Each structure stands twice: as C-alpha cells, then as structure tokens.
UniProtKB/TrEMBL annotation:
Name under which the protein is recorded: glycerol kinase
A GO cellular component annotation in the UniProt record: mitochondrial outer membrane
Pathway: Polyol metabolism; glycerol degradation via glycerol kinase pathway; sn-glycerol 3-phosphate from glycerol: step 1/1
Gene Ontology molecular function: ATP binding; glycerol kinase activity
Assigned keywords, A-Z: ATP-binding, Cytoplasm, Glycerol metabolism, Kinase, Membrane, Mitochondrion, Mitochondrion outer membrane, Nucleotide-binding, Transferase
Listed GO biological process terms: glycerol catabolic process; glycerol-3-phosphate biosynthetic process; triglyceride metabolic process
Matches recorded under SUPFAM superfamilies: Actin-like ATPase domain
Family that this chain belongs to: Belongs to the FGGY kinase family.
Organism of origin: Chanos chanos
The keyword Transmembrane helix is annotated on this UniProt entry: no
Originating gene: LOC115816932
DNA damage recorded as keyword: no
Segments forming a coiled coil: none
Subcellular location: Cytoplasm; Mitochondrion outer membrane
Amino acid sequence: MNSTMAASSNRIMLGPLVAAIDQGTSSTRFLVFNARTAELLSHHQVEIKQSFPKEGWVEEDPKEILQSVYECMDRTCEKLTQLNIDISNIKAIGVTNQRETTLVWDKETGEPLYNAIVWLDLRTQSTVERLINKTPGRNKNHLKHKTGLPISTYFSAVKLRWLMDNVTEVHEAVLSHRAMFGTVDSWLIWCLTGGKKGGVHCTDVTNASRTMLFNIHTMDWDPDLCKYFDIPMEILPKVRSSSEIYGLMKICSSLKSGSLTGVPISGCLGDQSAALVGQMCFQDGQAKNTYGTGCFLLRNTGSKPVMSDHGLLTTVAYKLGRDKPPCYALEGSVAIAGAVVRWLKDNLGIIQTSSELEKLAAGVGTSYGCYFVPAFSGLYAPYWEPSARGIICGLTQFTNRSHLAFAALEAVCFQTREILDAMNQDSGIPLNQLQVDGGMTSNRLLMQLQADILCIPVVKPSMPETTALGAAMAAGAAEGVSVWSLNPEDLTEVTSEKFEPQINPEESEFRYARWKKAVQRAMNWETTEPICNGNEETSIFSSVPLGFYILGSMLMLIGAKYIAGHKHI
C-alpha cells in the first residue's frame, strides 16, 4: 500500500513534461521526457516502409510518415495514462527528422504530389554531373562558399529540381502557385498545426542548411542559389530558429492524442543537430557520432562556419532562440551504417533480426581478410564519389556468412575512422575520445570494434535516445515555454559506459590500410545511364571509349585495304 502511495505521489511530483517526435529514415518515435531530470518516461516506435522503384531510387510515403506520427502519439498517450501520468503536463513538443528527404504537396488539398524522395536516393546523379560540368574547372565545391556543401545527390535542391522536371503534378502545382516544398520537419509541422486549414509552413535553420538553397552566412534562403537551381522562392518554407513557438497542435478530438491539441510545437532540429544538442555538445570542439541508417560525426565549431579541406561539410548546428546567435559544425556524413544490417536481413536473408548480426559476428571474432565497402549510394564523406558502388573483396572458400557479418560491422567502424581522421586534420586538435549514440550503439561488439579501429575510447550514454532528447530540450527551452533550462549548471549529468581499445595500434593500422585498398576498388564503378536508341536498346556508341575503339578499328581496316590496294597497282 505504502509503495503504491509513494509511486502515485512521485507521479504528482513529476512537474512539466516535454515530448519529441523523432521521424527517422527507418522508423518514427514519439517520446516523453521529464523536463527537470531529462528522464525518458514513455515512448512508442513504428517502422517506416521504404520503396525502391528503380535501382538507386529510395522513396517513402508522406501519408504513411504522418500516420506513423499519429500512431506513435496515440500509443504513447495510452502508455502514459496506464502509468497514471497526466498528459496535460506535456507543455511543449519538439520535432526532429531525417534531413534532406524532399516532399512537395498541394496547399489547397493537403495531398502530397509524389512520394518523399529519401536523402539516400541516387536518381539525380546525371543532374549532379551536368551541374558540376557547367562549373568553372568542373568543381563540385562551386557553391560551398555559400552553402558549406558540395554539389551532390544527397541534398534537397537537386531532388526538388527532379520533381519539378519529371512529375507533371508537381510542375503544374508550381505553375498554379499551389505547391509547397519542405523537408520532413516542414511537412509534419504544417500537417500538425492545421494543414490546409491554416497550417504553419516553416523549417528551422539546421534543416534549411541541408537544401543547397540556404546561405549559411546570411542565415536565409539565397536568391542566387534559387536562381541557379531555377526554384521559385515562393514554394519554400519560412526559416525559423531551432527553438521558438512555431504553432499549436491541432489534432482530431476522437484520437487518444487529441488532448495534445493546443500544445505548442516549439523545437525543430535535423536529427544530427538534435543529437549534438542531446549529447550536450555546446562547446567549441565537442563532438558526437550517431549510428543510424547512416553514420554522422558532428563537431561543434562555435559561432563561425569552418570550411573543410578534407571532404567534410560545414553545416548549421543549431540556433536556440530567435535572438540567439547560430552555432556551426563540421560534419562527416556516411550514407550506409545501419542500412547495411537491413540489407543483410532483407536482401540476402542471412539474418532474421538485426540483433542476430552481433551473435553471428561474435561467433568468429574476425572477418578473416574479408572487406565490405557498402557504397550502395556512392561514397559520401570524405570522398563525395557518386560513381562508387558496393564491393565485397578478400573472399576465399573459407569465408562464410559470419565473416561477412563481421566485415559489415567493421565497415561501419572503418567509415567512422575515415571521417574522424578528416576532422582531426581540419581542426588540428585530435579527439581523445568519441561520444556515440543512435540505434546501432546497442551492439556491444560494434562499440568495442569502433574503439579498436579508432585507437581511442568510445563513450556511450546509458540513455541512447539523444536525438529525441535534443529536440525536447530545444522545445522546452523556447521562449514562452521555458520549462527546460539549457544553462550549463542546470544540465543533468549523463551516465555513460566507456569502451577502451583492446588491440595494438599496429594491427588496427594494418586492417585500416586494407580497407582503404578496398575503397579504391569500389571507385568509378558506375557512370550515368547509357544512351538508348529508339527501340530502348543500348547503343555500343553510348560508351565513348568503345565508340572510339570501333571507329578507330574501322578506319584502320579501310586504311589497310587502301594501302594493300595500292601495293597491287
């Protein structure tokens, strides 16, 4: 009896709560935190289907994304009620999201005009090559001085350009001033604040900085960049800070989460920025690495954007208030991390669940000389090589699926080592330990491997949901909400686990050198689509070298006949 009373009195003492919508590439979550202690009280997660209509294409259904948010909110509210926690204590909601993924919808009907084109998607490779070829000296960094980014398939502007050029509904909606463009955060905030009935069309500086249309110095959309990609500025969302009240939730009263109506949405951060905030990396030089679908290493560089000489991106880390200064970061982006686990499960069927991978790899404890470069979407940092493709090399008759599982985990670690090396070179101050978070960090073998391959300790917080925590912190600290203090002395101490390197550095360097060799083998594999003739058949002349070879051979034959003919005269 006493324990029940104690529990209920504890619940009464909870104080203000803050929720976060975490919409990632492979799943959606809704999480509720105690604003005073940063404790996670309840959450729910729903997987998101990805579709691959053609090779290199990756899409998601915007309506399914929205529905998954409603489902997660409903189920979490149910769980809170069961825990006897009052939902009306939720004072604010933050949004964090997969970045760059591109959507266009009709503001009059509220309907999406095409599937969301996911950040990993490669359909714009020919557009990117054409844009780079147009630049002086064929320079992929032509826009970097304004955007901090190379011209790449990764960012939103080229995806939006593709939609405008190839989807009739999008083209027509743009012409008739009905189109709205947004990344996932914009779509969710617009829908959750009323949609076609007065929804707020906005984004935050961190998401805007990943479009290639945003000037990271003026902190706004850039008219010259919009002209460069021929994108009308009227379809773009309004850029706001990462921590302010954007609008109030409007939810159908028949839903369990209907009681969230009227709660302000007051935090918005791209997922990697949110993880930086959630890991409390507020000082210049602090860094974190997130292991999700991809792998993203961000290092806070303070109030000035630092340009990389080693293939890293310059991005906006956060702007925690309308009148606060922006903070910048250097970012190393790896396209395929957790996605390699999904590929081994869904495409090869060598595991049934993600957790099986660790058991399988731990069973052999080595890749036995097998190296796996999962360049499914080309290579991102530090190479920015869209023509690279996945490769598995060093196979022998002895190699089995366990070695392949181990090689897949090592691939995540080697890719992190590459971006960490680039970051250390750019900053001149090597990191002496790596703070980590994200879904894959539950794999203890991966964490140990990472420490071994980096030759520095890896530190993992005991509460892994740092991305959602960052969005909740931004929402709770917003002016007009003010239930979460971001003053350094008020931030709660995070408990964590440390993985120390256990192999000698020579072995680590040897394995890393072999990995580099494998990466070179993966390069320049794929060029843009071959030219087809009218019958959809590929012409041999679509390959320029082959064309020259055949024409040259024909000319040599004609020449030889001509000379032979002259000899007989």
